[in-house]
Hints:
Distance between the termini: 29 Å
Radius of gyration: 18 Å
Helix content: 25-40%
Structural class: alpha/beta
CATH topology: Rossmann fold
Order of helices and strands: HHHHHHHEEHEEHEHHEE
CATH architecture: 3-Layer(aba) Sandwich
Shape: globular
Bound molecules: S-adenosylmethionine
Strand order of the largest sheet: 3-2-1-4-5-7-6
Number of helices: 11
Number of domains: 1
CATH class: Alpha Beta
Strand content: 5-15%
CATH superfamily: Vaccinia Virus protein VP39
Amino acid sequence: xxxxxxxxLHQRLPILAGAYxxxxxxxxxxxxxxxxxxxxxxxxxxxxxxxxxxxxxxxxAQFMSMNDRVGGKxxxxxARQTGAVxxxxxxxxWPEQFPFKDEDFQRFDETPDSLFxxxxxxxxxxxNAAIAAxxxxxxxxxxxxxxxxxxxxxxCSSWVSHYPAGYKQDxxxxxxxxxxELKGNPxxxxxVVQDLNLNPKLPFEDNSxxxxxxxxxxDYLTKPLDVxxxxxxxxxPGGLAIMSFSNRCFWTKAxxxxxxxxxxxxxxxxxxxxxxxxxxEPPQAVDISPNPGRSxxxxxxxxxxxxxx
Length: 309
Ligand SMILES: C[S@@+](CC[C@H](N)C(=O)[O-])C[C@H]1O[C@@H](n2cnc3c(N)ncnc32)[C@H](O)[C@@H]1O
């Protein structure tokens, strides 16, 4: 059965508490299913952030009515259900137009990103098990180390890219906000400091990258379609874009549609970026969570640039 873009309110709530970096919220992995009722209760009694920011309201209104078309039950019952995230992008019937509105890309903190990322953070943003799962995934899908002519862009990069140990290519570019972090990233052969929310144009030639990665950062993009169009432009035909994410974020800097939805919804949101940007094969989702419920979940949404594009 085809998936439709229908989300239920209670599925959007667990992520509310997933503030990060989760020093005191190391348990944000536990903020999913078991605590839904508690969080719903909190939501009901607090000032609704959705009202302040218009969090996903347009999205919600637009798709509420489509819910019953998903066979009477939502396809995103819980990201914890085996395969729920992977199912999310199977046979999606995408609406003709990009379904999100400007307010869906607002953030609680609209000050310049350059301020937020001014000081380097030499930390990791997901736990070791999630990092290991991502690195293992990369070892299966990235071109072998030292393949002649291979170029990779790590978008929203920092001091670490999570590629396999010792991984090397002719060209690995990091693009991010903090120069000190990028300078400290041993895998990069070059870096660019650029605020993609101010300037989504990627400063690279057409058809020049084999791979684009983006780790736990796609949720900070306020102009995702512009960025994904650019990704399509700079990828070589058949080039692979790998967006990975967990259930944590700097919630003041993440877009409202992200902070008001759950893991499976996030796969759908990222999938929609590929779909509506154009030039990509149908996006797919993979759940590589290492120990569901005990360590950070880890999800991939990936797509290849059409070989004909
Ligand atoms: C949570 S960190 C993740 C860093 C790294 N990818 C990792 O896995 O550790 C978010 C990253 O997104 C980048 N970022 C956030 N907003 C950005 C923007 N507007 N333009 C470009 N990069 C941005 C920051 O530089 C930061 O490195």
